[in-house]
Amino acid sequence: MKLPFSPSLTPPTETPTAAYWFIFRGSDLLVVDGGETATLPTAKPNFSLLRQHYLGQLDGESEPIHCYTAEVDTTTEPPTGMQFTGLRQLFMRLPTDHLWLAGRAVQIIDWDRTHQFCSRCATPNETLEHERAKKCPNCGLTTYPRISPAIIVRVDRMIDGVPHLLLARNGRWTRDFFSVLAGFVEPGETLEDCVHREVFEEVGLRLKNVRYFGSQPWPFPNSLMVGFTAEYASGDIVLEEEEIAEARWFTVDTLPKLPSSMSIARRLVDAFIAEVNSEK
Length: 280
Fold this sequence. Notes:
The protein has about 280 residues and is an alpha+beta fold. The protein folds into 2 domains: about 5-115, Nucleoside Triphosphate Pyrophosphohydrolase, CATH 3.90.79; about 150-280, Nucleoside Triphosphate Pyrophosphohydrolase. The chain has 3 helices and 16 strands.
């Protein structure tokens, strides 16, 4: 998904009278509460900020709108008519462009908060002006906002001439839904290697025809989800019980409760449904 957004490190000379402000208390975003909908503050809130960053410009109806992100103390109370809300709870309430830009914003805030000092020599870091980075003035170590790559894969299988896909339920999830398999990439591993390893570790299956599907930034807390499709090659389902509570093959007519439509997991499942229906 491409945002109509132009990132920048250089803010306007004067703070604009109207701008989008992504204000975080911890990882919760300040929004104007509209019940089923939510909107961002368009003026700088009148309370003390722990840190502030300029993000760039988001396309507006008539002209681009400047965007800022900032953090407030954990004791800060929201102004009347506003609330601090987790990003997951803002799915389908906040405009899509604003939600994904909020994901960028919270990761920049988290990076700034957790990289105040050099991890090598403990000297206070300096924030660079020409790139989104911090540099130690003592030993020269440069640090950037961290991105954790992860794969997410839909496994397809033909059973008795009927297309099926593999869905699993994670034992740690509080919500009772099924999704495709996913996992973090390990050092020295290609994305394709990770697909094969994660599926074998979690459900004991071997794959073939691994193909790239798409990607999505996932700020929980700092993932980049890289999506694939693959075909079943061999094996029986054997669960990694510490992580997977249940895994089964489903047809388009027997699908369980699925993830939010905002996620690449749901896009993978929806693409499977569309492919099957197109062949009927």
